[in-house]
Write a structure and sequence with these properties.
CATH architecture of the largest domain: 3-Layer(aba) Sandwich
Family: Belongs to the Glu/Leu/Phe/Val dehydrogenases family.
Keywords: Oxidoreductase
Function: Catalyzes the reversible oxidative deamination of glutamate to alpha-ketoglutarate and ammonia.
Largest sheet: 5 strands, mixed
Protein name: Glutamate dehydrogenase
Strand order of the largest sheet: 1-2-4-3-5
Bound molecules: NADPH dihydro-nicotinamide-adenine-dinucleotide phosphate
Number of domains: 2
CATH topology of the largest domain: Rossmann fold
Subunit structure: Homohexamer.
Oligomer: single chain
Number of helices: 16
Strand content: 15-25%
Shape: globular
Radius of gyration: 21 Å
Length: 439
Protein backbone atom coordinates (compact mmCIF):
# COMPACT_ATOMS: atom_id res chain seq x y z
CA UNK A 1 0.00 0.00 0.00
CA UNK A 2 1.33 3.45 -0.94
CA UNK A 3 1.38 5.71 2.09
CA UNK A 4 3.67 8.56 1.11
CA UNK A 5 3.23 10.46 -2.16
CA UNK A 6 6.81 11.70 -1.88
CA UNK A 7 8.14 8.19 -2.48
CA UNK A 8 6.76 7.61 -5.98
CA UNK A 9 10.02 6.22 -7.41
CA UNK A 10 10.28 3.80 -4.50
CA UNK A 11 6.74 2.50 -5.09
CA UNK A 12 7.49 2.20 -8.80
CA UNK A 13 10.56 0.05 -8.05
CA UNK A 14 8.68 -2.12 -5.53
CA UNK A 15 5.75 -2.63 -7.91
CA UNK A 16 8.12 -3.75 -10.64
CA UNK A 17 9.60 -6.43 -8.38
CA UNK A 18 6.32 -7.56 -6.79
CA UNK A 19 4.62 -7.98 -10.14
CA UNK A 20 7.41 -10.16 -11.52
CA UNK A 21 7.73 -12.42 -8.50
CA UNK A 22 4.01 -13.29 -8.34
CA UNK A 23 4.53 -16.73 -10.00
CA UNK A 24 7.39 -17.49 -7.58
CA UNK A 25 5.22 -16.62 -4.56
CA UNK A 26 2.56 -19.00 -5.86
CA UNK A 27 5.14 -21.74 -6.18
CA UNK A 28 6.81 -21.20 -2.81
CA UNK A 29 4.29 -20.26 -0.11
CA UNK A 30 7.05 -20.11 2.51
CA UNK A 31 7.98 -16.62 1.28
CA UNK A 32 4.52 -15.38 2.28
CA UNK A 33 4.49 -17.36 5.52
CA UNK A 34 7.82 -15.85 6.50
CA UNK A 35 6.64 -12.27 5.67
CA UNK A 36 9.59 -11.84 3.31
CA UNK A 37 7.97 -9.01 1.31
CA UNK A 38 6.94 -7.10 4.44
CA UNK A 39 10.49 -7.39 5.76
CA UNK A 40 12.18 -6.64 2.43
CA UNK A 41 10.40 -3.36 1.75
CA UNK A 42 11.40 -2.01 5.16
CA UNK A 43 15.04 -0.86 5.26
CA UNK A 44 17.12 -2.34 8.08
CA UNK A 45 18.35 1.15 8.94
CA UNK A 46 18.19 4.69 7.50
CA UNK A 47 20.21 7.68 8.58
CA UNK A 48 19.43 11.28 7.65
CA UNK A 49 21.77 14.01 8.68
CA UNK A 50 22.65 17.67 8.36
CA UNK A 51 25.62 18.55 6.14
CA UNK A 52 26.78 22.10 6.93
CA UNK A 53 29.68 23.57 4.95
CA UNK A 54 31.17 26.96 4.15
CA UNK A 55 31.19 28.23 0.55
CA UNK A 56 33.96 30.29 -1.06
CA UNK A 57 32.31 33.57 -0.07
CA UNK A 58 32.26 32.56 3.61
CA UNK A 59 28.51 31.79 3.67
CA UNK A 60 27.31 28.76 5.61
CA UNK A 61 25.36 26.31 3.42
CA UNK A 62 23.29 23.38 4.65
CA UNK A 63 22.38 20.23 2.75
CA UNK A 64 20.61 16.99 3.60
CA UNK A 65 22.63 13.76 3.85
CA UNK A 66 21.25 10.22 3.57
CA UNK A 67 22.46 6.65 3.94
CA UNK A 68 20.04 3.80 3.69
CA UNK A 69 21.19 0.35 4.80
CA UNK A 70 18.48 -1.68 3.15
CA UNK A 71 19.34 -5.35 3.36
CA UNK A 72 22.37 -7.27 4.61
CA UNK A 73 21.17 -10.85 4.04
CA UNK A 74 23.93 -11.58 1.53
CA UNK A 75 26.77 -9.41 2.83
CA UNK A 76 27.77 -5.89 3.89
CA UNK A 77 25.54 -3.08 2.57
CA UNK A 78 26.89 -1.92 -0.78
CA UNK A 79 25.73 0.86 -3.07
CA UNK A 80 26.70 4.30 -4.29
CA UNK A 81 26.35 7.88 -3.09
CA UNK A 82 24.48 10.33 -5.32
CA UNK A 83 25.02 14.10 -5.12
CA UNK A 84 22.29 15.84 -7.12
CA UNK A 85 19.71 18.53 -6.27
CA UNK A 86 16.87 16.09 -7.04
CA UNK A 87 17.94 13.70 -4.25
CA UNK A 88 15.36 13.07 -1.53
CA UNK A 89 14.49 10.20 0.82
CA UNK A 90 12.26 8.52 -1.81
CA UNK A 91 14.95 8.53 -4.51
CA UNK A 92 17.54 7.05 -2.16
CA UNK A 93 15.02 4.46 -1.03
CA UNK A 94 14.23 3.38 -4.62
CA UNK A 95 17.91 3.14 -5.45
CA UNK A 96 18.63 1.17 -2.27
CA UNK A 97 15.78 -1.24 -2.97
CA UNK A 98 16.96 -1.89 -6.55
CA UNK A 99 20.46 -2.38 -5.27
CA UNK A 100 19.46 -5.39 -3.13
CA UNK A 101 18.41 -7.48 -6.15
CA UNK A 102 21.12 -6.17 -8.45
CA UNK A 103 23.81 -7.11 -5.94
CA UNK A 104 22.23 -10.53 -5.43
CA UNK A 105 22.28 -11.09 -9.19
CA UNK A 106 26.04 -10.56 -9.36
CA UNK A 107 26.40 -13.75 -7.31
CA UNK A 108 28.84 -11.90 -5.01
CA UNK A 109 28.44 -11.62 -1.21
CA UNK A 110 27.06 -8.07 -0.96
CA UNK A 111 23.91 -6.61 0.58
CA UNK A 112 22.07 -3.50 -0.65
CA UNK A 113 22.41 0.14 0.38
CA UNK A 114 22.48 3.65 -1.11
CA UNK A 115 23.10 7.19 0.00
CA UNK A 116 23.66 10.74 -1.09
CA UNK A 117 22.76 14.35 -0.73
CA UNK A 118 20.73 17.09 -2.40
CA UNK A 119 24.04 18.97 -2.82
CA UNK A 120 24.51 20.25 -6.39
CA UNK A 121 28.15 19.91 -7.47
CA UNK A 122 27.54 22.02 -10.61
CA UNK A 123 29.30 25.36 -10.54
CA UNK A 124 31.09 24.60 -7.25
CA UNK A 125 34.83 25.14 -6.89
CA UNK A 126 37.14 22.27 -6.09
CA UNK A 127 37.61 23.64 -2.57
CA UNK A 128 33.82 23.77 -2.04
CA UNK A 129 33.45 20.17 -3.21
CA UNK A 130 36.18 19.16 -0.77
CA UNK A 131 34.63 20.99 2.19
CA UNK A 132 31.24 19.50 1.41
CA UNK A 133 32.67 15.95 1.15
CA UNK A 134 34.54 16.40 4.44
CA UNK A 135 31.40 17.53 6.22
CA UNK A 136 29.36 14.68 4.70
CA UNK A 137 31.91 12.11 5.87
CA UNK A 138 32.15 13.65 9.35
CA UNK A 139 28.75 12.09 10.02
CA UNK A 140 28.81 9.12 7.64
CA UNK A 141 32.06 7.61 8.95
CA UNK A 142 30.45 6.27 12.14
CA UNK A 143 27.96 4.18 10.12
CA UNK A 144 30.27 2.56 7.58
CA UNK A 145 33.15 0.07 7.56
CA UNK A 146 34.80 -2.47 5.25
CA UNK A 147 32.66 -5.29 6.71
CA UNK A 148 29.47 -3.34 7.45
CA UNK A 149 28.68 -0.79 4.75
CA UNK A 150 30.85 0.14 1.76
CA UNK A 151 29.65 3.16 -0.28
CA UNK A 152 30.79 3.98 -3.84
CA UNK A 153 30.05 6.66 -6.47
CA UNK A 154 26.91 7.41 -8.48
CA UNK A 155 25.60 10.59 -10.17
CA UNK A 156 27.80 13.51 -9.12
CA UNK A 157 30.25 11.32 -7.22
CA UNK A 158 33.38 10.23 -9.10
CA UNK A 159 37.03 9.59 -8.26
CA UNK A 160 37.60 13.15 -7.02
CA UNK A 161 34.72 13.05 -4.52
CA UNK A 162 35.63 9.52 -3.38
CA UNK A 163 39.16 10.87 -2.74
CA UNK A 164 37.94 13.70 -0.49
CA UNK A 165 35.50 11.39 1.30
CA UNK A 166 38.21 8.80 1.90
CA UNK A 167 40.71 11.40 3.14
CA UNK A 168 38.26 12.53 5.81
CA UNK A 169 37.29 8.96 6.75
CA UNK A 170 40.95 8.07 7.26
CA UNK A 171 41.51 11.09 9.43
CA UNK A 172 38.52 10.37 11.65
CA UNK A 173 38.80 6.59 11.86
CA UNK A 174 42.59 6.35 11.79
CA UNK A 175 42.33 3.39 9.44
CA UNK A 176 43.32 2.82 5.82
CA UNK A 177 40.86 0.19 4.72
CA UNK A 178 38.48 -0.67 1.89
CA UNK A 179 35.59 1.37 3.24
CA UNK A 180 34.82 3.06 -0.09
CA UNK A 181 35.12 1.76 -3.65
CA UNK A 182 35.78 3.75 -6.80
CA UNK A 183 39.06 4.98 -5.27
CA UNK A 184 41.89 6.27 -7.43
CA UNK A 185 44.09 3.47 -8.77
CA UNK A 186 47.05 5.26 -7.12
CA UNK A 187 45.86 4.29 -3.63
CA UNK A 188 43.69 1.20 -3.46
CA UNK A 189 41.30 1.60 -6.36
CA UNK A 190 40.74 -1.23 -8.81
CA UNK A 191 41.52 -1.04 -12.49
CA UNK A 192 38.33 -1.05 -14.62
CA UNK A 193 36.10 0.30 -11.79
CA UNK A 194 35.72 3.61 -13.63
CA UNK A 195 34.80 1.85 -16.87
CA UNK A 196 32.88 -1.04 -15.30
CA UNK A 197 29.24 0.04 -15.50
CA UNK A 198 29.46 1.22 -19.12
CA UNK A 199 31.61 -1.71 -20.25
CA UNK A 200 29.40 -4.12 -18.31
CA UNK A 201 26.22 -2.82 -19.98
CA UNK A 202 27.80 -3.38 -23.39
CA UNK A 203 28.95 -6.90 -22.41
CA UNK A 204 25.37 -7.55 -21.33
CA UNK A 205 24.13 -6.22 -24.70
CA UNK A 206 26.58 -8.57 -26.44
CA UNK A 207 24.96 -11.53 -24.63
CA UNK A 208 21.47 -10.33 -25.60
CA UNK A 209 22.46 -10.01 -29.25
CA UNK A 210 24.35 -13.28 -29.25
CA UNK A 211 21.21 -14.98 -27.95
CA UNK A 212 19.54 -13.90 -31.20
CA UNK A 213 22.52 -14.86 -33.38
CA UNK A 214 23.23 -11.20 -33.85
CA UNK A 215 26.29 -9.05 -33.04
CA UNK A 216 27.23 -5.47 -32.21
CA UNK A 217 29.26 -5.09 -35.41
CA UNK A 218 27.86 -2.24 -37.50
CA UNK A 219 25.00 -1.36 -35.12
CA UNK A 220 23.86 2.25 -34.64
CA UNK A 221 23.27 3.06 -30.98
CA UNK A 222 21.44 5.81 -29.12
CA UNK A 223 23.09 6.66 -25.80
CA UNK A 224 21.72 9.14 -23.27
CA UNK A 225 23.87 10.87 -20.66
CA UNK A 226 27.52 11.86 -20.98
CA UNK A 227 28.75 10.94 -17.52
CA UNK A 228 30.66 7.96 -16.24
CA UNK A 229 28.30 5.25 -17.48
CA UNK A 230 27.55 6.81 -20.90
CA UNK A 231 31.20 7.58 -21.73
CA UNK A 232 32.48 4.07 -21.06
CA UNK A 233 29.50 2.44 -22.73
CA UNK A 234 30.36 4.46 -25.87
CA UNK A 235 34.04 3.52 -25.56
CA UNK A 236 33.22 -0.21 -25.48
CA UNK A 237 30.67 0.13 -28.30
CA UNK A 238 33.35 1.59 -30.57
CA UNK A 239 35.77 -1.19 -29.56
CA UNK A 240 33.21 -3.81 -30.55
CA UNK A 241 32.41 -2.27 -33.92
CA UNK A 242 29.18 -0.38 -33.10
CA UNK A 243 28.58 3.37 -33.51
CA UNK A 244 26.99 5.58 -30.84
CA UNK A 245 25.27 8.48 -32.63
CA UNK A 246 23.83 10.40 -29.67
CA UNK A 247 24.64 11.48 -26.13
CA UNK A 248 23.04 14.02 -23.80
CA UNK A 249 23.35 15.97 -20.58
CA UNK A 250 20.77 17.72 -18.44
CA UNK A 251 20.79 20.72 -20.83
CA UNK A 252 20.42 19.01 -24.21
CA UNK A 253 21.13 16.26 -26.73
CA UNK A 254 23.81 15.82 -29.40
CA UNK A 255 23.12 13.79 -32.54
CA UNK A 256 26.10 13.12 -34.76
CA UNK A 257 25.29 11.01 -37.81
CA UNK A 258 28.82 9.75 -38.38
CA UNK A 259 29.34 8.82 -34.73
CA UNK A 260 29.97 10.72 -31.47
CA UNK A 261 33.50 12.11 -31.12
CA UNK A 262 34.24 10.41 -27.82
CA UNK A 263 37.62 12.08 -27.17
CA UNK A 264 35.87 15.43 -27.41
CA UNK A 265 33.04 14.38 -25.05
CA UNK A 266 35.65 13.16 -22.54
CA UNK A 267 37.48 16.47 -22.80
CA UNK A 268 34.30 18.50 -22.28
CA UNK A 269 32.88 16.35 -19.48
CA UNK A 270 35.86 14.79 -17.68
CA UNK A 271 38.38 17.62 -17.97
CA UNK A 272 36.44 20.86 -18.35
CA UNK A 273 33.20 20.03 -16.46
CA UNK A 274 31.56 21.76 -19.42
CA UNK A 275 28.27 21.56 -21.31
CA UNK A 276 27.63 19.33 -24.33
CA UNK A 277 26.59 22.33 -26.36
CA UNK A 278 30.33 23.07 -26.66
CA UNK A 279 30.54 19.99 -28.94
CA UNK A 280 29.28 22.20 -31.79
CA UNK A 281 32.39 24.42 -31.63
CA UNK A 282 34.36 21.48 -33.05
CA UNK A 283 31.61 19.74 -35.04
CA UNK A 284 29.28 22.32 -36.51
CA UNK A 285 27.61 19.59 -38.61
CA UNK A 286 26.32 17.77 -35.50
CA UNK A 287 22.78 18.48 -34.26
CA UNK A 288 22.14 19.95 -30.80
CA UNK A 289 18.65 20.06 -29.26
CA UNK A 290 18.35 22.09 -26.07
CA UNK A 291 16.20 20.59 -23.33
CA UNK A 292 13.40 23.16 -23.71
CA UNK A 293 12.88 21.98 -27.30
CA UNK A 294 12.36 18.32 -26.35
CA UNK A 295 8.96 16.85 -27.24
CA UNK A 296 6.49 17.43 -24.41
CA UNK A 297 5.92 13.73 -23.88
CA UNK A 298 9.54 12.61 -23.82
CA UNK A 299 13.16 13.02 -24.79
CA UNK A 300 14.74 13.92 -28.15
CA UNK A 301 17.49 11.37 -27.71
CA UNK A 302 15.04 8.48 -28.33
CA UNK A 303 13.54 9.98 -31.49
CA UNK A 304 16.35 8.99 -33.87
CA UNK A 305 16.68 5.85 -35.97
CA UNK A 306 18.92 3.17 -34.47
CA UNK A 307 19.29 -0.53 -33.67
CA UNK A 308 19.98 -0.33 -29.92
CA UNK A 309 19.12 2.16 -27.16
CA UNK A 310 21.31 2.60 -24.06
CA UNK A 311 19.67 4.90 -21.48
CA UNK A 312 22.62 5.91 -19.27
CA UNK A 313 21.56 9.16 -17.53
CA UNK A 314 18.83 8.96 -14.89
CA UNK A 315 15.49 7.48 -13.74
CA UNK A 316 12.33 7.82 -15.87
CA UNK A 317 14.17 9.40 -18.81
CA UNK A 318 12.48 7.12 -21.37
CA UNK A 319 8.69 7.49 -21.57
CA UNK A 320 6.00 5.41 -23.24
CA UNK A 321 6.02 7.79 -26.24
CA UNK A 322 9.81 7.48 -26.45
CA UNK A 323 9.43 3.69 -26.41
CA UNK A 324 6.87 3.89 -29.23
CA UNK A 325 9.21 6.07 -31.25
CA UNK A 326 12.09 3.63 -30.72
CA UNK A 327 9.97 0.72 -31.94
CA UNK A 328 8.66 2.66 -34.95
CA UNK A 329 12.24 3.49 -35.88
CA UNK A 330 13.26 -0.17 -35.87
CA UNK A 331 15.10 -0.30 -32.56
CA UNK A 332 15.41 -3.97 -31.56
CA UNK A 333 17.25 -3.83 -28.22
CA UNK A 334 17.07 -1.65 -25.12
CA UNK A 335 19.88 -2.03 -22.59
CA UNK A 336 19.75 0.06 -19.42
CA UNK A 337 22.98 1.56 -18.09
CA UNK A 338 21.08 3.84 -15.70
CA UNK A 339 18.86 2.81 -12.78
CA UNK A 340 15.16 2.55 -13.73
CA UNK A 341 15.50 4.88 -16.77
CA UNK A 342 12.34 3.56 -18.45
CA UNK A 343 8.92 4.42 -17.05
CA UNK A 344 6.65 1.51 -16.15
CA UNK A 345 4.52 2.14 -19.26
CA UNK A 346 7.63 2.05 -21.46
CA UNK A 347 8.74 -1.24 -19.90
CA UNK A 348 5.26 -2.72 -20.43
CA UNK A 349 5.43 -1.76 -24.09
CA UNK A 350 8.85 -3.37 -24.55
CA UNK A 351 7.62 -6.56 -22.98
CA UNK A 352 4.31 -6.67 -24.90
CA UNK A 353 6.13 -6.06 -28.19
CA UNK A 354 8.74 -8.74 -27.43
CA UNK A 355 11.54 -6.19 -27.75
CA UNK A 356 14.78 -7.50 -26.26
CA UNK A 357 14.91 -5.45 -23.06
CA UNK A 358 17.77 -5.63 -20.54
CA UNK A 359 16.66 -4.01 -17.24
CA UNK A 360 19.18 -1.86 -15.38
CA UNK A 361 19.18 -4.15 -12.39
CA UNK A 362 20.90 -6.77 -14.55
CA UNK A 363 22.57 -4.74 -17.30
CA UNK A 364 24.26 -2.12 -15.09
CA UNK A 365 25.42 -4.50 -12.35
CA UNK A 366 28.99 -4.42 -13.69
CA UNK A 367 29.77 -1.34 -11.60
CA UNK A 368 28.88 -2.83 -8.26
CA UNK A 369 30.41 -6.17 -9.23
CA UNK A 370 33.74 -4.48 -9.93
CA UNK A 371 33.39 -2.57 -6.66
CA UNK A 372 33.22 -5.93 -4.95
CA UNK A 373 36.36 -6.97 -6.86
CA UNK A 374 37.96 -3.80 -5.43
CA UNK A 375 36.93 -4.92 -1.92
CA UNK A 376 38.51 -8.33 -2.56
CA UNK A 377 41.77 -6.73 -3.67
CA UNK A 378 41.80 -4.38 -0.66
CA UNK A 379 41.10 -7.19 1.79
CA UNK A 380 43.91 -9.33 0.41
CA UNK A 381 46.27 -6.38 -0.23
CA UNK A 382 46.67 -7.61 -3.80
CA UNK A 383 46.30 -5.77 -7.06
CA UNK A 384 45.02 -7.30 -10.27
CA UNK A 385 45.87 -6.06 -13.78
CA UNK A 386 43.39 -4.22 -16.00
CA UNK A 387 43.03 -7.31 -18.21
CA UNK A 388 42.41 -9.58 -15.23
CA UNK A 389 39.63 -7.40 -13.82
CA UNK A 390 38.09 -6.86 -17.26
CA UNK A 391 37.99 -10.62 -17.86
CA UNK A 392 36.27 -11.16 -14.48
CA UNK A 393 33.77 -8.40 -15.27
CA UNK A 394 32.95 -10.02 -18.61
CA UNK A 395 32.42 -13.39 -16.89
CA UNK A 396 30.15 -11.83 -14.25
CA UNK A 397 28.00 -10.09 -16.90
CA UNK A 398 27.65 -13.35 -18.85
CA UNK A 399 26.58 -15.16 -15.69
CA UNK A 400 24.03 -12.49 -14.85
CA UNK A 401 22.58 -12.78 -18.34
CA UNK A 402 22.47 -16.59 -18.13
CA UNK A 403 20.92 -16.54 -14.67
CA UNK A 404 18.18 -14.06 -15.71
CA UNK A 405 17.52 -15.91 -18.97
CA UNK A 406 17.40 -19.35 -17.32
CA UNK A 407 15.01 -18.08 -14.65
CA UNK A 408 12.77 -16.43 -17.26
CA UNK A 409 12.62 -19.77 -19.11
CA UNK A 410 11.88 -21.65 -15.88
CA UNK A 411 8.78 -19.50 -15.41
CA UNK A 412 7.63 -19.85 -19.02
CA UNK A 413 8.55 -16.37 -20.30
CA UNK A 414 11.91 -16.96 -22.00
CA UNK A 415 12.31 -13.44 -23.40
CA UNK A 416 11.24 -11.58 -20.23
CA UNK A 417 14.52 -10.59 -18.55
CA UNK A 418 12.65 -8.33 -16.10
CA UNK A 419 10.94 -11.36 -14.64
CA UNK A 420 14.17 -13.37 -14.88
CA UNK A 421 16.30 -10.76 -13.12
CA UNK A 422 13.76 -9.97 -10.40
CA UNK A 423 13.00 -13.59 -9.57
CA UNK A 424 16.66 -14.70 -9.66
CA UNK A 425 17.72 -11.81 -7.39
CA UNK A 426 14.75 -12.08 -5.04
CA UNK A 427 15.12 -15.84 -4.53
CA UNK A 428 18.73 -15.54 -3.32
CA UNK A 429 17.91 -12.78 -0.86
CA UNK A 430 14.71 -14.41 0.41
CA UNK A 431 16.38 -17.77 1.01
CA UNK A 432 19.25 -16.13 2.89
CA UNK A 433 16.76 -14.18 5.03
CA UNK A 434 14.88 -17.34 5.93
CA UNK A 435 18.09 -19.13 6.89
CA UNK A 436 19.05 -16.21 9.15
CA UNK A 437 15.78 -16.28 11.09
CA UNK A 438 13.34 -13.47 11.89
CA UNK A 439 15.63 -10.45 12.01
P1 LIG B 1 27.31 10.96 -13.82
O1 LIG B 1 27.05 11.99 -12.81
O2 LIG B 1 28.70 10.62 -14.18
O3 LIG B 1 26.54 11.30 -15.17
C1 LIG B 1 25.16 11.46 -15.21
C2 LIG B 1 24.75 11.91 -16.60
O4 LIG B 1 23.33 11.97 -16.68
C3 LIG B 1 25.24 13.32 -16.93
O5 LIG B 1 25.40 13.42 -18.31
C4 LIG B 1 24.07 14.19 -16.44
O6 LIG B 1 24.01 15.45 -17.08
C5 LIG B 1 22.89 13.33 -16.82
N1 LIG B 1 21.78 13.56 -15.88
C6 LIG B 1 21.78 13.37 -14.54
N2 LIG B 1 20.60 13.71 -14.01
C7 LIG B 1 19.84 14.12 -15.03
C8 LIG B 1 18.51 14.59 -15.14
N3 LIG B 1 17.73 14.70 -14.06
N4 LIG B 1 18.06 14.93 -16.38
C9 LIG B 1 18.84 14.80 -17.47
N5 LIG B 1 20.11 14.37 -17.44
C10 LIG B 1 20.59 14.02 -16.24
O7 LIG B 1 26.52 9.64 -13.30
P2 LIG B 1 26.71 8.14 -13.73
O8 LIG B 1 27.08 8.07 -15.16
O9 LIG B 1 27.57 7.49 -12.72
O10 LIG B 1 25.24 7.55 -13.51
C11 LIG B 1 24.26 7.51 -14.55
C12 LIG B 1 23.19 6.49 -14.20
O11 LIG B 1 23.78 5.19 -14.05
C13 LIG B 1 22.43 6.75 -12.91
O12 LIG B 1 21.11 6.27 -13.05
C14 LIG B 1 23.16 5.86 -11.91
O13 LIG B 1 22.38 5.52 -10.80
C15 LIG B 1 23.43 4.65 -12.78
N6 LIG B 1 24.50 3.76 -12.33
C16 LIG B 1 25.78 4.23 -12.14
C17 LIG B 1 26.77 3.38 -11.74
C18 LIG B 1 28.19 3.82 -11.64
O14 LIG B 1 29.05 2.93 -11.46
N7 LIG B 1 28.52 5.08 -11.77
C19 LIG B 1 26.48 1.98 -11.40
C20 LIG B 1 25.13 1.55 -11.73
C21 LIG B 1 24.19 2.44 -12.14
P3 LIG B 1 24.79 16.73 -16.47
O15 LIG B 1 26.23 16.50 -16.81
O16 LIG B 1 24.17 17.89 -17.12
O17 LIG B 1 24.54 16.67 -14.98
Amino acid sequence: KQTSPAQSEFYQAVEDVLESIEPLLEERPKYREQAIIERLVEPERQVMFRVPWVDDSGQIQVNKGYRIEFNSALGPYKGGLRFHPSVNAGIIKFLGFEQIFKNALTGLPIGGGKGGSNFDPKGKSDAEIMRFCQSFMSELYRHIGPNTDVPAGDIGVGTREIGYLFGQYKRLANRFDGVLTGKSTLWGGSFVRKEATGYGAVYFAECMLDDKDDSLEGKRCLVSGSGNVAIYAMEKLYELGATPVTCSDSSGTIYHEKGIDLDLVKRIKEEQNGRLEDYLETHSNAEYTPRDEYPEDGHTVWRYKADIAFPCATQNELTEKDAQSLLENGCKYVVEGANMPSTQAAVDLFIESNTAYGPGKAANAGGVATSQLEMMQNASMLRWSFEEVDEKLKGIMRNIFKDAKRTAEEFGHPSNLVLGANVAGFRKVADAMIEQGVV
